Each structure stands twice: as C-alpha cells, then as structure tokens.
Amino acid sequence: MRNLFAALSGGLFGAGLMVSGMTDTRKVQGWLDIFGDWDPTLAFVMGGAILPMAVAWQLTRGRTPVLGGNFPTPPEQRLGHNLILGSVLFGMGWGLVGLCPGPAITSLSFGGPSVWVFTVAMLGGMLLAPSVRIRLDLLARPT
Amino acid sequence: MPIDWIFGLIGGLMIGLAGAVFLLANGKVMGASGIIGGLIDGSGSSNRTERIAFLAGLIGVPTVIALVFGFTPESDVTTNPLLLVIAGLLVGVGTRIANGCTSGHGVCGISRLSLRGIVATCFYIGAGGLTVVLFRHVLGVI
C-alpha cells in the first residue's frame, strides 16, 4: 500500500512537472534571467504547489499518517553553513543547465541523451556529497 | 505567453497535490533529491522500496503520457557535455549538502513556513540568477 501511494505521488509529481512546463529548461532559465526575456511561469508553479501543501501541513496536526508511522518532526531552526553553501552550489548548477532533480528524472524518457548525461553526473555528485560535507565541516569548525 | 501561466498554475497544483498525498498517506516529505540521494548513498535503505516506487511513478507516468498521448514537452537542454556534467555534479553535491532541492526546500519547506526552506530557496534562486546572468550576458556561454 505504501508503495502504491508512493508511485501515485511520484506519477502525479511527474505529470505536474510536465504540464507546468518545468521540464523545459528554457522556462527555468527564463525565470532566473532577470536581465533577459523574464519568464514568470515558475512563480505560478511554486504558488500552485505551495497551496495544497500548506493545507496538507495543517491537516497533519493532531493526526498520524493514513498508512501508519509518524509525520516529519517540526523543521530544524538552525541554518548552518551546509544549507547555505549547498544551496549556492545547487543554484549554480540549476542556472547553468536549467534542470533540478525532479524535472531531470521526469524527462528521462523524452528529454534526449543530454538529460541522461546530466542525471548520471547528478547521481555522481550525490555520491561525492558526504566527503564534500566532511571537508566543509572541517573548514567551518571554529579553531 | 499568458497561457503558460495557467498551465504553470495547474501543473503546480498537481505537484502540490502529489506532495500532499505523500505527506498525508506515507508521512514523508516529497523531496526529489532526498528520495534519490537516500537510494544512492544507502542512507535511505530502511524504506528502499517506497523510494523506488516513487521514482518508478516519476519516470513511468511521464513515459506513458509521452507514448500514449503523444505529449512530449520541449526540454531545450544544452548538448554541451561539459556544461551538463558540471551542472549535474553541482546539483547532486549541492542538494545533498543542503539537504533539499526545489521540491523539498521549496514546495514542502515554504508551505510549512520552515526558515531553512525559505533561506535555502532564496540562496539557490539567487545563485541560479547570478549564474544565468554571468554565463549568458557576460560570458555568452549559455
């Protein structure tokens, strides 16, 4: 049952990314390009996605997940160097090509070989992340 | 084009609904980089099949839509292999170090007013904007 709902959620996520136009790197880079022909679509996608999610978070109060277990704990308040540095690195890669993890996986079947090259490199980056994190932690440690 | 905004909004609502299903049914935050990353580095081995099922839906449903309905949106991805590899590495390392991407920090974080989600989103949009401006308008590479 958990797997069925996970697949349903993944499928709806992929379909939503396709419909919204977020698998089109031109629209993503167009949103980031404030000095070019600026494309506001991403703001509508974000807004549209945040609405049902905000309702869902409200519904978690005083309840447990339908399929058992517990809801995620309240978000950590501490920001930390990893959040900032990681987000900057991610943003640079996102800007360079216009793909982030969700749309990359979604367009594997129709985006052509470029999406595969990007995705393989992304998986490699994810494998490297723990060792990069250890180095960043050492650098950030107060001496 | 104004019609793009409407599709953006409809697609966005679908994405939010997907996140709501994953949260209310499975009790999990729908973050693409976390779901993939947990499989790659083994940190998510306790709910491996759930992650694989999510990714199967994420790959499978768009494939069916593309094959059955003939709807294949433009991707316009660069064919420059160097750019693709560098960008892929940056996205992979960055999202795992920051512990989230556009779906986890952006959609799921902002909607619960998580400070971390909001700050992360400001930084990756800021860095992405600077990168596009630098590489498109200054260097002319993309």
TrEMBL record, chain A:
Q: Which UniProt keywords apply?
A: Membrane, Transmembrane, Transmembrane helix
Q: Can you tell me where the transmembrane regions are? A: 41-59, 79-99, 105-129
Xref: InterPro entries: DUF6691 (IPR046513)
Q: What is this protein called?
A: YeeE/YedE family protein
UniProtKB/TrEMBL annotation, chain B:
Sorted alphabetically, the keyword list is: Cell inner membrane, Cell membrane, Membrane, Transmembrane, Transmembrane helix, Transport
Residues crossing the lipid bilayer are 6-25, 52-71, 83-101, 113-135
Gene Ontology CC: one annotated term = plasma membrane
Localization terms from the record: Cell inner membrane
How this chain sits in the membrane, per its record, is: Multi-pass membrane protein
InterPro entries for the chain: Sulf_transp_TsuA/YedE
Q: What is its main location?
A: membrane
Q: Which PANTHER family does the record associate with it?
A: INNER MEMBRANE PROTEIN YEDE (PTHR30574), SULPHUR TRANSPORT DOMAIN-CONTAINING PROTEIN (PTHR30574:SF1)
**Family the UniProt entry places it in:** Belongs to the TsuA/YedE (TC 9.B.102) family.
Name the record gives this protein:
YeeE/YedE family protein
This protein's species is Meridianimarinicoccus aquatilis
